[in-house]
Each structure stands twice: as C-alpha cells, then as structure tokens.
Design a protein that fits this description.
Elements (H helix, E strand, L loop, with lengths): L2 E7 L4 E7 L3 E5 L6 H10 L2 E6 L11 H8 L2 E5 L9 E3 L4 E5 L4 E7 L8 E7 L2 E8 L18 H18 L5 E4 L17 E2 H7 L1 H4 L2 H10 L8 H10 L14 H9 L3 E4 L3 H6 L6 E2 L6 H8 L6 E5 L2 H12 L8 E4 L17 E2 L1 H6 L6 E4 L3 H5 L2 E2 L3 E2 L5 H4 L8 E4 L4 H12 L4 E4 L4 H5 L4 E2 L10
Parallel strand pairs: 3-4, 4-5, 5-6, 10-11, 13-14, 13-15, 15-16, 17-22, 18-20, 18-21, 21-22
Antiparallel strand pairs: 1-2, 2-3, 7-8, 8-9, 9-10, 11-12, 19-23
Helix pairs in contact: 3-6, 10-11
Length: 462
C-alpha cells in the first residue's frame, strides 16, 4: 500500500506532498520551513529517501536543498534547471524506486510550459500510475501560468503547456490522482482552482487545456494573465543559488521607543491583528496585513525588497505563525517585534490612530457628496464590474502611487475587505482621511451604487 499526505500552504495557495510506502517516502516541492515535512514523515514512521522539485519555483523559497542535506535523501531536480548546487539531474523517463516492499516508483515526465524544464512525476505502484505530481503543469481546472520566466518565451511556453497537459492525459490512466503544487490561490496558476481534488479523467472532461484546440487555448490563456507579484523576481534566483536554512527563533523585542524610531527611519512596522482591531486603534504610521489573510503574498508584494520589517502581534503564537509564513517568501528575519496590547506600542502621552469601517450601503448614502471612491482590486476584477466614477489603483501599486489619489475623503474598497484594510492603512499612514469599506463587492449593486463593466466608463470621484 502507498500513502500521500498533503502539506497545505494556504497562505501561498500551494501544496507540498509526502508520499511513500511502509518504510520510505518522497517529499515533493517542500516548503522552506521543512520541520513540518520531517514531522509528517515521523508520524508515518518512514525515512525520506528522495526530495523532488518539479521546477525551480518562482513564487516561494524551497526547502528542498536543506531537507535533502538533513535527511541524506537524493535531491531530484530537472536536468534542464540551471542551479548552483549538486543534485541528481532528472531526465524524461527516469525512474526512481521509492519503497521496495510496496513496489513504488517515481517516473519522470517532461512537462514544459510553466518553466522550460518543468517535470511531473508519476507515482506508480506495481507499474501502474496511481497519482501524478504535476507541480505547475496540469492543475485542477487550469494550468500553471507560462509568463514567469521570460516575456519572449511566454507564447511558446503556453503552447508547451497545452502539449504537456495532453501528454499526461494520454499516458496516464483516467483514475490517476492529479496532485499539483499550485492552483489553490497561488498567483502561479493561470486561474483559480475549481476544486480541491481531481483525476486525469476529470481534467479531460473539464480542463480547457484538454478541451480546447491549442490556438484557442493559448489565446484565452494569454488574455487572462494577471499581474505578477513583485517578489517573484527574487524567488527564482534564490532557488537556483540554493536557499540558506531558516531561523524561526523569536525576533528581538521592541518597545514603544524603538517602534517610533523604526517608523522615523522609514522602516515598515506591520500590525498583524485583524482589520477590525487595527481600525479601532493602531500605532500611527503602521500598516495592517492580517496574519489570517494572504500575509506572505501581499506583504512581500508591497514592501520594498530588503526594507527592515518590524512585526506587531496580539500574541507570541500569532507572531510565530507570521514568521513562518514570511520565511517561505524570503522575508527571513523581522528587525524586531512586539506582542500584546497596542496601548503598549506607543510612547507615554501619545494616542493610537484609528479610522472608520463602513459598508457599501453606507457609501451609497454618501452618493453625491464628493467622496473619493478608491478601488484597489486587480485589473481583471475591475473589468468584470466597478463603481462608476471610482478611481482604480490596485493595492500592490498603491505605495508608489499614493500621489494619484485625489484630494478629499477617501472610501477604499476591494472584493471582500482584506485588501481595503491594507490600502486604508497605507493611506492613513500618509495622513489621508480614509474609510475602509469592509464589505463584499457583491453588496455594492444591492446598495444602489451604479456598477458598470469595463465598457461603462471611468471617472475620478463619486
């Protein structure tokens, strides 16, 4: 018998896997915080004999090199990947024995498209594929995006994705489980996953890579590509060079004086508490990135790369979880941290800052009163509908575009409230009079606001 355990990295929208038999196992696309992979192996009572990378990742820092070093496992990396460390170069068709008593093997399948060297791995039991680790190739209802390597390669890689998906569909049984790394909210996916589990047969019936001809598929894929998180620029080189081990020990504690000094020096002070608590009272100049949201993705996307970050958390547990999220994207060590009551984070005699939270119904009641409506969703979201007259500045571009926000009372919204809270904190820190619309965008039209599609025009104030 074989097993496959999933290690869910919800904050990044990724999954890693531990798969094996009675005695040994393989770790597939492991995260940088490898302790959870080692713990999973310990629970199974197996030794990790192989560590596998489907490709050099562009969205997170791998823990594969360190995991292989610590466990003595063979480190399998596609032969076409240009890396600076020793590994077992994997070629199409290579086979690796995983667990002899269970007759488990991995078979390498070249599936270029997400990257030129991308490789999937079929897990075979007694010669029959039971699962396939597809990395950024065939995802659940989608494929990995082809535009993260080199713009001039994008169309060629998109066509390769189509061919790779068809290869997997042709060579593997319909009941083979499809186990991708991306596609659960990751920006490495060309579209959001349509489910949490799938098979080759299910993808044949529903995945556009397998139901459309190559030209139609490629045209649709390229037209739907969204913005790329800025920190992706740093992930590929870090993974090719060989990431250093992580340090998850608690950062140096910061008192109110140090927090104030770091703010004065232009460093980022990030409050991890939920957006309700932050709006009610926070250190003036601090930014709100909820620990329970897509912390790693959005903080790494917005913060100038290499800028020192001080974390403010409601508890030591929240701080530790945030550290773990951030090391996965190369934000290695907070400059300092504080936990507890926000009243303790400001110097004696200083007040906490605050701003109001409202709904789209509240905004509708202010119609015609000259407020600035700021939409911080991505381009693709806005194209499907937006409040007439609203200003559009995606949240990941806002730090460098604050000067574009018109004068006046700013009501900022996104699709659900999390990104609006980030944007409101940025505006509040810049001294703007801001209201965070903490509401679902679906409520905008219900509230009577004029919602139009991309053809309906775009102004500056509502």
């Amino acid at each position: 018998m074989f097993f496959v355990d999933t290690i869910d990295l919800a904050g990044l929208g990724n999954r890693s896997y531990l798969a094996g038999g009675e005695r040994t196992a393989v770790a597939v696309d492991p995260p940088r915080d490898i302790d959870q992979v080692i713990a999973a192996a310990a629970r199974r009572g197996v030794r990790i004999s192989h560590v596998v990378e489907t490709h050099v990742h562009n969205d997170y820092v791998t823990g594969g090199l360190e995991l292989a070093r610590l466990t003595g496992a063979a480190y399998l990396v596609p032969a076409g990947a240009r890396v600076a460390y020793d590994r077992v170069p994997v070629h199409d068709g290579d086979r690796f024995g995983i667990d002899t008593p269970a007759a488990l093997t991995l078979r390498a399948l070249a599936t270029p498209g997400h990257t030129p060297h991308h490789t999937s791995y079929a897990l075979e039991e007694n010669g029959t594929a039971v699962a396939v680790f597809t990395g950024g190739s065939l995802l659940i209802g989608a494929v990995g995006r082809p535009d993260l390597v080199e713009p001039r390669l994008t169309e060629r890689l998109a066509r390769a994705q189509h061919a790779s998906a068809h290869r997997l569909a042709a060579e593997l049984p319909d009941d083979t489980a499809v186990l991708p790394t991306h596609g659960f909210g990751s920006f490495c996916s060309s579209a959001r996953a349509t489910g949490s589990a799938s098979t080759i047969g299910a993808e044949k019936a529903a995945n556009e890579a397998l139901t459309r001809d190559v030209d139609t598929f490629v045209a649709g894929l390229l037209a739907g590509l969204d913005d790329v998180p800025a920190y992706y620029t740093h992930m590929g080189p870090a993974n090719a060079e060989g990431p250093s081990p992580v340090d998850l020990t608690p950062p140096a504690p910061a008192d109110a004086d140090e927090i104030a000094a770091r703010l004065a020096a232009g460093e980022w002070v990030v409050d991890l508490r939920n957006r309700v608590a932050f709006a009610e009272g926070h250190v003036a100049g601090s930014f709100n990135f909820e620990a329970e949201g897509q912390l790693a993705t959005y903080l790494a996307w917005l913060v100038p790369w290499g800028r020192p970050v001080t974390l403010l958390a409601e508890s030591a547990e929240q701080l530790a979880a945030a550290q773990r999220e951030l090391v996965r994207v190369g934000v290695d060590r907070p400059a300092a941290a504080a936990t507890g009551d926000p009243e303790e984070w400001v110097r004696e005699g200083e007040d906490l800052a605050s701003f109001p939270r409202r709904t789209f119904a509240d905004l509708a009641a202010r119609a015609g009163q000259g407020v600035v409506v700021l939409d911080v969703r991505r381009d693709s979201e806005r194209a499907s509908g937006h409040v007439r007259g609203s200003v559009h500045i995606p949240v990941h571009t806002l730090p460098r575009r604050l000067h574009e926000v018109p004068d006046g009372h700013v009501w900022v919204h996104c699709a659900g409230g999390m990104r609006a809270a980030v944007a409101a904190s940025l505006l509040d820190a810049a001294g703007r009079d801001v209201v965070a619309v903490d509401d679902s965008f679906a409520a905008a039209e219900e509230a009577g606001l004029p919602v139009v599609d991309a053809r309906g025009g775009n102004g500056s104030v509502a």
